[in-house]
Amino acid sequence: ILLIESAGKRMALASNTIARAMHIYHQFKRCIDTIDFEDGLVAASAIALSAKTNEETLDLQNIVIVFWDMLNKDQVSLPKLNSEEFQELTDSLTKVQYLICRALKFELNHLLAHQYVIPFLRNLHEIAEFQHKWDVFVNIVWKVVSTAYMSKKCLNYDACEIAVASIYITCQFCRIKTDVITNWPEALSATMKKEKLYAAIVEFLAVCGVISVPNEI
């Protein structure tokens, strides 16, 4: 997952493309948990598939170069681009992409929390009392949403629930009053009951490196 995050940033990919790659990675690892695959190859393939799904231009050669550099750290020279060895690397990447597609039944275009954040924030802006700058608050929400996909437990929640939990965490962090409407998280996501919201908060905060969590919500 850290490879996906680092490589995605180096290749200047959109945050939702990186998040989708993480989701694909988690799904695939869950499907083949008894089979040992090289993490770097799976991570690179997940990024390639995510970029295709999000219609973001990304060359396979570029993926190979970036991951080779990250995994070898200049200890082993990259094969020449027109060499047979380099072609084998790109072929391996293509084969694993197909394997992932087969394992996930070619269902890669799942909804992401990113698609819910903006409309949810618009609704929240009308009922909340903000003491922070709006753009600062929104930026923190985006970071929490993206971080949530680093945990394999993101598979326990749908995109809508991840968006709600991320916004709730940010509201608590920024001390924003949202009690104008009772139980607004469930109003945004009917499946986000208090127990599930609390579980999501604990899991996503753990990914952020926060150990202390609220006793109740």
UniProtKB/TrEMBL annotation:
Name one molecular function that GO assigns to this entry.
cyclin-dependent protein serine/threonine kinase regulator activity
Task: Tell me the protein's name.
Answer: Cyclin-related protein
Asked if the keyword Thylakoid belongs to this entry, the reply reads: no
A Gene Ontology biological process noted in the UniProt record is: regulation of transcription by RNA polymerase II
Keywords associated with the record: Cyclin
The domain of life for this entry's organism is Eukaryota
Cited InterPro entries: Cyclin-like_sf, Cyclin/Ssn8
